[in-house]
Amino acid sequence: GEVLKNLNKFYKRKEIQRLGAENGLDARLFHQAFISFRKYIMESSSVSADLHIILNDICCGFVLLGHVDDLFPFFLRHAKQIFPMLDCMDDLRKISDLRLPPNWYPDARAIQRKIIFHAGPTNSGKTYHAIQRFLSAKSGVYCGPLKLLAHEIFQKSNDANVPCDLVTGEERVFANEDSRQAPHVACTIEMCSTNTPYEVAVIDEIQMIRDPARGWAWTRALLGLCAEEIHVCGEPAAIDLVTELMYTTGEEVEVRNYKRLTPLTVLDYALESLDNLRPGDCIVCFSKNDIYSVSRQIEARGLECAVIYGSLPPGTKLEQAKKFNDPDDPCKILVATDAIGMGLNLCIRRIIFNSIVKPTVNEKGEKEIDSITTSQALQIAGRAGRFGSSFKQGEVTTMHRDDLVQLKEILSDAVPPVKAAGLHPTPEQIEMFAYHLPDATLSNLIDIFVSLSQVDGMYFVCHIDDFKFIADMIQHIPLNLRSRYVFCTAPLNRKEPFVCTTLLKFARQFSRNEPLTFDWLCRHTKWPLAAPKNIKELVHLEAVHDVFDLYLWLSYRFMDMFPDAVLVRDIQKQLDNIIQIGVCNITKLIRASQSAAAPGTAEVVSEDFPLSRTQKDARLVSERHGAAPTEALSIAVETTGLRRAKSSRPSRLGSRQEDLKSYGRGSLANRLLREGLLTQEMLRQLESEWQDQHRNGRYGFGSKRDDQHSSKETRKKRK
């Protein structure tokens, strides 16, 4: 007890904390080191003799012989054993100093660049004007956020007789038949070269410089491209940050403002029923489950609809867009996620938000339901009434009446200014870290780098969750550091187990120096594949398409080990066509999935869609307590307060609560299902509460007391 008391006294001493900081132990590392040091002393049977003597002197109260501060050298020695970087902290701090990013690009600093910012909302012609300058230049590079956008500029440029290459992570297409490099190139922004000189560069969607995962690519392009003219296009919210960044490089920014080319009207009425759909309508959903549900309901009304969501292959998205845009095609309705926000030209008359809350993941990795931001709402709503389409003006509304007031508030809010630009550690920096810390894993190297990195107020270090996920997954596979780093930057859909296990197999075979052949890939994916018969099979085909993308991406980094890119690209095109067939028959697949699950249920796919699990649990409640499924959900709703989507707008909270209270029992339950505001865990908790109340005979369903309890809502829901 005396030892523990003195150790805790040592930990609390300000002088000891100051000494720790001087030796590279910040508050977090100091705490972790102390916990380990305390455990070593309390549990180890082999404490060194000198430490044993010091502890004895301190505990026996020999003031002249021992003081708790005398433990510091032993503590520091222990800390250096568990944190080896303390011995080379100065070197590591220099390597991870990110305070002067402009200096990383000497070629760009050697020339005086002209920066032109084309600022305006969606459908204002800002990108069009930048592209016109790109086409008239002797040489140029277009940098976009999506493969679809890069492909569009590649096509447009070659159609205008301006030879242009295409470069994405997975694809290289040369305009010249002899594979000579063309003077123009359209690329995804991560793939742009900062060494090649150009006359004109175009950086599209510059506001994405704030993106927590990909922002570093826009920062790199803006600071590093060697072009006489840099044309950046995007939201006015990014003007101030771009101007500040260019001030540090000594370059001035010319701002050209654009207004929307066609009027956009927020309607005073909601759609309320799918019976009120008109040609040119697009219903925007924020989950695949809603996509499936809405598309089926539309088909039940005898209407055809196109479907677009993020995980579809680019070819399928383009085909669905073409089908919807074709005036001679009977398909006049589009059901889509926010994937339509950029990258597709669509002839939309009216945007209808099926919901104004969207699933997000917070900084702790927890799922939340949150109101869409003003920037997101404007980007999506702006797709209506595109200039040059058959609709001369755009309209926007919501599916549900009680969402419309909030949507109007969201759209009327000012977009907050972009405050900081993303940065990311380079392979060279990580290699230098590894030199100093040879025993650290790549995941630990990244953690140490981020914890030691210094950035000024205009920058932030992008989160590296995907990178660390792969680093941990392949840690046990023997790879050299550079190869390991490349594998960790591969595009991976972490939600798809099949894609993750495939990457693991790629890395394992790569480490054995065994080439990943076309035959091997066909065996692994069971190619050839048939058209999907239900939604689960369609989701698997999308995952296989991601696997082919992964192979192609790796083939450009390790050509010898992934030698069959041409063959894989051929079967990927065939797979795209198979997926297109599936999407065209999506309502049949939904019906097949539902009938396979249980007759008369609304379940589609359980693994990816929490709503379907909720409905399954609702049936459990109904089976145990004799209530209809919707009533069972209503019971749950009215027995407890709902944790609603978080919102920074207090004025909306009261009105949302009143709207919810005024909703009928069955319709409220359906609404919660539709918006994903009820989960398995919540339902189990509610069921348990209901059972307790039922046993105690305190009150029944639908009572005033229940309703009062139900109205105590919060705006946040975490799963």
TrEMBL record:
Q: Which InterPro entries match?
A: DEXQc_SUV3 (IPR055206), Helicase_C-like (IPR001650), P-loop_NTPase (IPR027417), RNA-DNA_Helicase (IPR050699), SUV3_C (IPR022192), Suv3_C_1 (IPR041082), Suv3_DEXQc (IPR044774), Suv3_N (IPR041453)
Keyword Hydrolase appears in the UniProt entry: yes
Report the SMART domains cross-referenced here: HELICc
SUPFAM superfamilies per record: P-loop containing nucleoside triphosphate hydrolases
One Gene Ontology cellular component annotation?
A: mitochondrial degradosome
Q: Where is the Helicase C-terminal domain?
A: 266-434
User: Where is the protein found, in the record's own terms?
Assistant: Mitochondrion
Q: Which GO terms describe its biological process?
A: mitochondrial RNA 3'-end processing
Specify residue ranges for compositional bias: Basic and acidic residues.
703-713
User: Known EC number(s)?
Assistant: 3.6.4.13
Required cofactor names? Mn(2+); Mg(2+)
User: Where is the region Disordered?
Assistant: 689-719
Keywords assigned by UniProt?
Answer: ATP-binding, Helicase, Hydrolase, Mitochondrion, Nucleotide-binding, Transit peptide
Q: Which residues form the signal peptide?
A: none
Reaction(s) this enzyme catalyzes, per UniProt: ATP + H2O = ADP + phosphate + H(+)
Q: Which Pfam families match?
A: DEXQc_Suv3, Helicase_C, SUV3_C, Suv3_C_1, Suv3_N
Q: Which GO terms describe its molecular function?
A: ATP binding; hydrolase activity; RNA helicase activity
Similarity remark: Belongs to the helicase family.
Q: What is this protein called?
A: ATP-dependent RNA helicase SUPV3L1, mitochondrial
Q: Which gene encodes it?
A: Supv3l1
